[in-house]
Amino acid sequence: MSSPPPTIPMRKWDKYVKRNDTGHIIGIVDGAPELAKDAYNRAIDYNKWLLEKTANDLKKMVDAGFEHYQFVATLDEVTCPICGSLDGNVFKIADAAVGVNSPPMHIGCRCVTTIVFTDEKLANSNRFARDRDGRGIKVRADVFYPQYKQKYIDNPE
Ligand SMILES: [Zn+2]
After folding, report:
1. pTM score, two decimals?
2. What does the pLDDT look like over 112-128, one tens digit per residue?
3. Distance, CA 81 to ligand 1 centroid (Å)?
4. What is the pLDDT of residues 63-100, one digit of tens each?
5. Would you list the domain boundaries of the chain?
6. Could you tell me if 105 and 111 are in contact, meaning their C-beta atoms sit under 8 angstroms apart?
7. Cα-to-centroid distance, 151 and ligand 1 (Å)
8. How far away, in angstroms, is 14 Cα from ligand 1 center?
9. What's the DSSP call for residue 37?
């Protein structure tokens, strides 16, 4: 598997971006500046890479005898509510459907899949997250997006 293609944050180009009802990028407006098009095309390339990575990861899990996978979203402020609500959910690999319960969920999706770890393993591990100021922090691996958002984004101490 090749390394992920570099992306450029799309936020800067927001006025040139078309979004659907859920806020996901679905295209770019006619006449957008070249740099906005470049950022969009890189996001599309990343999505293709993520599609291939997810398929590879799920295949490796099947080959290793696993029947289920866990959906893993990024714990930071820009994760969308849909990906956030899927974080930590477990699905049958046979039922994996891109854009429904398997990444990429949308252009710009940063989610991945993993094997399902035991509760004990999760309770004794950490996962990377970002606080409201964008600083890297570690949270327990059994903290999923809704709890993370409430504690670190909505009501930080
Ligand atoms: Zn996502």
Report:
1. 0.91
2. 999 999 999 999 999 99
3. 9
4. 999 999 999 999 999 899 999 999 999 999 999 999 99
5. 11-154
6. yes
7. 20
8. 18
9. H
Residue 60: what are its φ and ψ, rounded to 5°?
-60, -40
Interval between CA 70 and ligand 1 midpoint (Å): 13
Q: Is 32 a residue whose pLDDT tops 90?
A: yes
| Cα 82 to ligand 1 centroid, rounded to whole Å | 8
Compute the distance from residue 37 Cα to the ligand 1 centre, in Å.
Answer: 21
Q: For the sheet containing 68-72, what is the strand order?
A: 90-92, 68-72, 112-114
User: How far is ligand 1, taken at its centre, from the CA of residue 93, in Å?
Assistant: 17
Query: How many of the other CB atoms lie within 10 Å of CB of 154?
Result: 9
Cβ proximity of 70 and 101 under 8 Å: no
User: Radius of gyration over alpha carbons of the chain, in Å?
Assistant: 17
